[in-house]
Amino acid sequence: MRVYNCGLCPRHCAVNRIKGETGYCRAGTSVKLALAALHFGEEPPISGVGGSGAMFFSNCNLGCVFCQNYQISSESYGREISAEDCAGIMLKLQEAGAENINLVTGTPQIYALVHALRYAKQHGLKLPVYWNSSGYETETAVELIDEFIDFYLPDLKTLNKKYARAWFAGEDYGETAARSILKMLSLKPNKTIIRHLIMPGFLDSTREVLEWFAKNAAGRAELSLMTQYTPVKNGIVSNSAPKRFVSQDEYKTVLNWLFEFEIEDGYFQELMPDSGWLPDFSRENPFESKLSKTIWHS
Known about the structure:
This protein is an alpha/beta fold. It has a single domain, classed as Aldolase class I (TIM Barrel, Alpha-Beta Barrel), CATH 3.20.20. Helices cover 31% and strands 17% of the residues. The strands form 2 sheets. Strands 1, 2, 3, 4, 5, 6 and 10 form a 7-stranded mixed sheet that branches. It has a 3-stranded parallel sheet with strand order 7-8-9, with helices on one face. The chain starts with 30 loop residues before the first strand and ends with a strand. The model has no long low-confidence stretch (mean pLDDT 93).
C-alpha cells in the first residue's frame, strides 16, 4: 500500500500519510466516516426492499461547487475510526437487513478500506459491495480495490474540460473518469451502473456523455440519469454553478436523446423540483425518514 506516496487520483499529491502529510483530499491513514445507514434513495435494484447499506465517507478529491454532501466532502465532517471498527459497522448493516454495502466516495481512503473490507469478509460479511465513486480515480486505484468490489457505481459528470475546471476543480476530470470507468468495465463487465447528473442550462455536456456511453459502455453497463441537481450554498465560492433546477423541457429533451442513441438499459429519475430532501449531516438522520434509517452516526 503506497500510503507513503499517494497516487490514488490524478492530483498525484505524493504525500506520505504515515508521517501525517495530507494532500488535496485531506485524508490520512485511517477511515473517516460520517454516516452508515439503510438508504432507500438509490436505484431500485440497489435499494431493494431492505435498503442499501450506505456508508458516507468524509473528504473528497474533487471540489464540486454544487456538492450536496459538502459538510462531509469539503468541511470534513466525520470521525476517524480503525479499519476493524469500519468492518464492524459493515457487519451491523448486514445484521440490520441491508441489501449490500455501498461505499460512498471512498476513493481517498482506499488504503484503509482494503484492510476494512478484508477484515469484514474474514468475519462474516456476505453482502455484495458497491463502489460508489465520482470516477476521479486512477486505474491503479481501481485495481487496488477491485478484489473486494462486486459492483461499480461511478459518476460520469462531464467530458468537457471547461466545465470540469469550473465545477469540479479538475480540468482532467472527464478523461480520468472515462479511463477509470473503462477499467471497471474490463474488470466487472455487466456489473456497473454509470451515473450522470443533468446540469440545467448545460445540456451539451449531457449529450456528450450519452454519446460516449452509447459508443463505449452500452451492452456492458447500465446508465442512471439523475435530475436532482439543486442549487446549494456550500461555502465554495463560485459563480459558475447553475442557479436553478432542471426544467421540464430539458427533461424531455434528454429523454428523447436516449431514444436517439438507442440507450435502453438503465434508470432515470423523475424531476426533482425542490430541495427538501437535501441531507444535513449534523442530524442523527441526515435524510428524510422515508429515505434512510441510521445505523451509525459520527
